[in-house]
Amino acid sequence: MSAVMELLLLLPLVLLALEAPLCHGACVEVDSDTEAVINDGFKLGCIYCKMRGEVDATATVKWSFKGSGDSDFSDLYIYEDERDEIIDPRFYERLHWNGSKHTRDLQDGSIYILNVTYNDTGTYKCKFSRTLKYSNYAYEKTKEKNITINVVARLTRGMASILSEVMMYVSIIGLQFWLLVEMIYCYRKISAAGEEALRESAEEYLAIASESKDNCAGAQVAE
């Protein structure tokens, strides 16, 4: 029975291993953080998933910035054909590409700011320009996202972040409880099946023994 229990304990790991290849390369659009800490690094997230994975495509990502004292957006950064260019001199040597690599079919257009300053407070605009290449034509699609960043001396956690973490732990505990219930159910089912098999074997043995006894008694009477 211990061998059965070991197999049941390994079952969740086996299922995760089987699901891992299916999840490889998956794209999920998530919102960027909006609170940066002074003198630290900060990732500006911008993801635009391609719904038709089988269609070839190329994409360009362009970032613009409007500081807290600016009246309009100004060009900040552009990434195209696996090459980048920092346009705004305020970000020279402080900006790096943090998105999709080794491909022109971009889905992650995130950038990373080094040594954040209070002057980096403001609104950043991420613009994806994607060209889907079909057999007979090309289709252009664009998407824009605005991200307002606040630079602080110390990171403070918002209620949304706390609730997200709580929900994550609740989900993990719920999944583990479900797996435990499944294991107990399977163990009881296997145990009951084993007991039933033993009971049937015992009844069959008693029936054979009784039949043999009757046969022996009949033979003695005939003699």
From TrEMBL:
Organism, scientific name: Pundamilia nyererei
GO molecular function: sodium channel activity; sodium channel inhibitor activity; transmembrane transporter binding
Any Pfam family hit: V-set
Protein localization: Cell membrane
A single GO BP: cardiac muscle cell action potential involved in contraction
Transmembrane domains' residue ranges: 166-187
Entry-linked PROSITE patterns: IG_LIKE (PS50835)
Subcellular location, principal: membrane
Membrane topology type: Single-pass type I membrane protein
Ig-like domain location: 12-148
Family to which this protein belongs: Belongs to the sodium channel auxiliary subunit SCN3B (TC 8.A.17) family.
Protein name, UniProt field: Sodium channel regulatory subunit beta-3
Subunit structure: A voltage-gated sodium (Nav) channel consists of an ion-conducting pore-forming alpha subunit functional on its own that is regulated by one or more beta subunits. Forms homodimers and homotrimers. SCN3B is non-covalently associated with alpha subunits and induces the formation of alpha subunit oligomers, including trimers. Interacts with SCN5A/Nav1.5; regulatory subunit of SCN5A/Nav1.5. Interacts with SCN7A/Nav2.1; probable regulatory subunit of SCN7A/Nav2.1. Interacts with SCN10A; regulatory subunit of SCN10A/Nav1.8.
